[in-house]
Amino acid sequence: MKALDRINPEAVVIVVTNPVDVLTRIALGRSRRDTGRLFGSGTVLDTIRLKEALGKTLDVNRKNVHAYIAGEHGDSEFALWSAASVGPLMLDDFGIGDLAGLTKRLEEKVRRRAYDIIEKKGYTSHAIGVAVATLVKAILYDEKKIFTVAVPLPKNCYGLDPDIVLSQPCILGRDGIEKKLIFDCDLPESTLFRASAEKLDEVYRRYRGIK
Questions:
Q1: What structural domains does the chain harbor?
Q2: Fewer CB within 10 Å: C terminus or N terminus of the chain?
């Protein structure tokens, strides 16, 4: 990071290597560049998979499905179902019979997808390559699109350390992270958000030898 700062402190840096949340936090701590110009790929691919699965289930083009995976890129990630919509309709209003059962199945399917691919061919590469290319395109063309990328927590969120990094919906443009769509701590998923943040903080502190 220090070498990259010397070469070009204005460049936008995307951390892709796993564990992406913890490594993004370490990178931010070692870089002098603006925090909006350094973020992790986070749950971008997980979110794409969720939209695809939900679109296929409901027989709707995934481009018209608005749903997001937040938190850790890993086992404690979760879907923001309370904010999910299809076109102008919230998911609750789409007329789905067993909504709770559907959301549980889709969320588990998305969470298991990477493991399933690794079991079959030993690694994942193509899908994350496409996902990161989408991020790069959004920056180069200043698209102002929303992606769930790994960034530091909002200030005053649960009293947690604001340096904790995990995925949240953000607007991405020419300057990198242009706006965090602040996670409402009153959402039903707030308990999952906090648990994911605490898990990642524990891993980071263990790595740094902090009690």
A1: 1-206 (3.90.110.10)
A2: C
Task: Compute the average pLDDT of residues 189-209.
Answer: 92
Our answer to whether residue 126 is catalytic in this structure is: no
pLDDT tens for residues 14-58? 999 999 999 999 999 999 999 999 999 999 999 999 999 999 999
Tell me which of 25, 37, 73, 111 is the catalytic residue.
73
pLDDT band of residue 209 (cuts 50, 70, 90) is confident
Give me the phi and psi of 85, to 5 degrees please.
Answer: -150, 160
What residues contact residue 1 under an 8 Å CB cut-off, 6+ apart?
Answer: 13, 27, 30, 31
How many Å apart are CA 40 and CA 108, to the nearest integer? 23
Residues composing the chain: 211
- Whether pTM exceeds 0.70: yes
